Amino acid sequence: MNGEAVKDQLPHRYPFLLVDRVLEREPGVRVVAEKLLTINEPYFQGHFPDKALLPGVLMLEMLAQAGGFLEPGPLRGKAIFLAQVLDARFKGAAFPGDKLRLEVSPDAGFGGLMRIKGSVSCDGRVLCTAKLLLKNVASPTDPA
Amino acid sequence: MSELKTEVKTMIIERLKLEGMTPDQIDDTAPLFGEGLGLDSIDALELVLGIEQHFGVKIEDEAAGLQAFKNVESLTAFIAEHRAA
After folding, report:
1. If residue A33 lies in a helix (H) or strand (E), which one and from where to where?
2. In b/e form, how buried is each residue of B26-47, taking b as 16+ CB within 10 angstroms?
3. Taken in order A137, B71, B48, B67, is the CA torsion positive or negative?
């Protein structure tokens, strides 16, 4: 899955669509996706002018977006928010030219909340691991 | 039942890291969410995991779970019923 198919699933658009391709997808079970970093990405202009590297928080955003493919139906037009970041570890940096592998699976869920766990890796090196809580505010069973 | 209630309150305090709070400060019938203890939906997920881990009770039916989360009394009754089942 790539290009328009990715855009059909996620509400994000340039310059904030951070998933290029979905390699494996089993909704509710596991997703493996890819993001190719190019020097043209807007954040590289300032982060940093002398040594371009991917902001760590964007690795978390990549995992959150990859998590969108765990949902069976499209998320376009839906209100999905990042509600919590847990146990985020950054073990390495990513640079222009890197092809990042995003792996996510569900960890827990209740009342319109889905907790996912995931990792970002490049050439077999794990760069980031984290658990993220995603909230679907449209859920009718939300207690808050 | 009152022992189980205290155990439930202790689990809530520990799981949600309600520092400085003791079980006797939580009213049995005060709402857990919104007014009362003031928990939110993220806390609800933590409680679901805590109940499963601590009492071995899974909350698979969301509607029943939300009903159980009304207050400590209803939550204790839910746990007692499903733990015995």
Report:
1. strand A30-36
2. beeeeebbeeebebebbbbbbb
3. negative
Instruction: Kindly provide the ipTM of the predicted complex, given to two decimals.
Output: 0.76
Hey, are the CB atoms on A113 and B49 less than 8 Å from each other? no
pTM of the model: 0.87
B2-84: CATH topology:
1.10.1200
Half-sphere exposure of B21 (CA within 13 A, CB side): 17
Distance CA A41, CA A36 (A): 10
Model confidence at A141: pLDDT above 70: no
Which amino acid would we find at residue A76?
A: R
List the 123-142 stretch of A: residues with Cβ below 8 A of B. Answer: 133, 135, 141-142
Rounded to whole angstroms, the Cα distance separating B57 from B64 reads 13
Mutation for A interface: B40, B60, B62, B67, most A CBs within 10 A = B62
